Amino acid sequence: MIFMLCGTSDARELAVRLSESGRELLCSVVTDSAAKSLQEAGLRVRTGRLASGEMAALLQEGGFRAVVDASHPFAEEAHRNAMQAARELGLPYIRFERASLVYGDHPNLTVVAGYEEAALAAKRRKGSVMLTTGSKTLHIFARHLIGDPEIRLVARMLPRRDNMEKCEELGVEQKNIVAMQGPFTREVNEALYRQYRTTVMVSKESGTTGAVDEKVETALQMGIDVILISRPEIEFGTVFTEYEGVLAEVMRIFA
Predict the structure, then answer these.
(1) Which InterPro entries match (predicted)?
(2) How far is residue 54's CA from residue 3's CA, in Å, rounded to a whole number?
(3) What is the pTM of this model?
(4) Count of CB atoms within 10 A of residue 168's CB?
């Protein structure tokens, strides 16, 4: 059996393909909405975060023979826990990750290594800052940007109660919250930028399926400064950016 960490829409597609190839698998997700999407595809799912020790125990008890990590590119803790658990039990670890995008050398594009650097870069630019990096690191941007009379911080995130509560706790005004679930078309992105008079957009380099390219390209075409947070540098070992590579590796392992 395969233990698979799923955190993106393309992870769902890969899980379906693995299942259709005759492989038995258990998908692990963090949110109920992600679990529902996988269950609707007929896949077995468990929900909730796992520490490395908890994951190792689950893998051992379930008799799993391989770990496929298709969690979000920025899910650093999940990556490390999965690699540690697989290493402890001597199981193959396979990483599936969206291919990185190439944006070119655009004068309005600034690539940074982390959230703190992104927040400071936005603070230097001032203006209307649209944050599209989710709620997990919102406190970093709130600390640097809220309270500055020359900055309007607009937070775009999933329409969940915990996200709205976090915005309230951190002082993000209701009028500056965009609670929507993507993917977003170019037209929607453009309309949002115009509505909030965005001068700076902050995003993560997640890959094509996450529509980061659409957000970035639209912003750049509108003359908006883009601050792009690069992916964490993690040594995964066996990494594939195409479904076929994972399927072939799984066939080799189970041969």
Answers:
(1) Precorrin-6x_reduct
(2) 13
(3) 0.78
(4) 12
